[in-house]
C-alpha cells in the first residue's frame, strides 16, 4: 500500500542545505538507472542539473522525497518571437511510486503557474518518451506535444574542446496557462538562451 504524498511548494531561496543534500540523493537515485551520465550533475550535493529552478514542487512521503518538478520563468525565442514561459524540468518520481506520474504533479504545479502569470509552461522530452508522456499528461487540452522543433541551449560548463551550445531534436511539451495554444508561435528552432532546467 502506498503512503500518502504531501506536497511542499517552495521558492529556491527557501531551501536549506539539508534540502539540497536530500534532493541531490533523490535525483542521483532517480536518474542513475538511465545512465551514470544522467546522475553526474547531481554530485556534490547539487539539486539542479543545468539552470536552477526558481520554484519547486516537492512530494514527500514516509520514506522521504517521493517526487519533484521545478519551474523557471524565462524568455525563450521561438522562431523570431521572444516568449515568456515557465520552463518545467527536473521531473522525477521515485521508482516505487511510478504511477504517481505527471498528472498529479501538474495538478499541484498548474495553480502555481497561473499565479506566476506566465502564458505557457514549456518542457522538453526525448522522442522515445512520446507515448509515455502522451499517456501521462492526462486529460486532453492540458498540454500539447510539439515535434519538428529543435532546441538550442547553452551548456552548463564551457570547455576549450567543445562548443558552448548544443542543439537537440526533442519533443516540446507546451501547457497553455494564460493564453491559448493557438497563440504559441511557429518556428523550427527554440533558443533557450541559457542552460536546460
UniProtKB/TrEMBL annotation:
Q: What is its EC number?
A: 2.3.1.-
Instruction: Enumerate the GO terms in the molecular function aspect.
Output: acyltransferase activity
Superkingdom of source: Bacteria
One Pfam family from the record = NodA
Localization annotation: Cytoplasm
List the coiled-coil residues. none
Q: Which NCBIfam families match?
A: nodulat_NodA, PRK00756.1
The alphabetized UniProt keywords are: Acyltransferase, Cytoplasm, Nodulation, Plasmid, Transferase
Give the PROSITE patterns listed for this entry: NODA
The protein's enzyme class: transferase
Keyword Cytoplasm assigned: yes
Protein name in the entry? Nodulation protein A
Task: Tell me which family the UniProt entry assigns to this protein.
Answer: Belongs to the NodA family.
**What is any one of the record's Gene Ontology cellular component terms?**
cytosol
Predominant location of this chain? cytoplasm
Does the UniProt entry include the keyword Ribosomal protein? Answer: no
Q: What's the source species for this entry?
A: Paraburkholderia sprentiae WSM5005
Cross-referenced InterPro entries, in alphabetical order? NodA (IPR003484), Nodulation_prot_NodA_CS (IPR020567)
Amino acid at each position: 500500500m502506498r503512503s500518502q504524498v504531501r506536497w511542499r511548494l517552495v521558492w529556491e531561496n527557501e531551501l536549506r542545505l539539508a534540502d539540497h543534500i536530500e534532493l541531490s540523493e533523490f535525483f542521483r537515485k532517480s536518474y542513475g538507472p538511465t545512465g551514470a551520465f544522467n546522475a553526474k550533475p547531481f554530485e556534490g550535493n547539487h539539486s539542479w542539473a543545468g539552470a536552477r529552478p526558481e520554484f519547486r514542487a516537492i512530494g514527500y512521503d514516509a520514506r522521504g522525497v517521493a517526487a519533484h518538478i521545478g519551474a523557471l520563468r524565462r524568455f525563450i525565442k521561438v522562431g523570431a518571437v521572444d516568449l515568456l514561459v515557465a520552463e518545467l524540468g527536473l521531473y522525477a518520481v521515485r521508482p516505487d511510486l511510478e504511477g504517481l506520474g505527471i498528472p498529479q504533479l501538474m495538478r499541484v504545479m498548474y495553480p502555481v503557474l497561473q499565479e506566476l502569470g506566465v502564458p505557457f509552461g514549456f518542457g522538453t522530452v526525448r522522442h522515445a518518451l512520446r507515448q509515455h508522456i502522451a499517456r501521462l499528461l492526462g486529460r486532453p487540452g492540458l498540454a500539447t506535444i510539439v515535434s519538428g522543433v529543435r532546441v538550442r541551449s547553452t551548456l552548463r560548463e564551457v570547455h576549450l574542446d567543445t562548443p558552448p551550445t548544443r542543439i537537440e531534436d526533442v519533443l516540446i511539451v507546451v501547457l497553455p496557462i494564460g493564453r491559448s495554444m493557438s497563440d504559441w508561435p511557429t518556428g523550427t528552432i527554440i533558443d533557450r538562451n541559457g542552460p536546460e532546467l
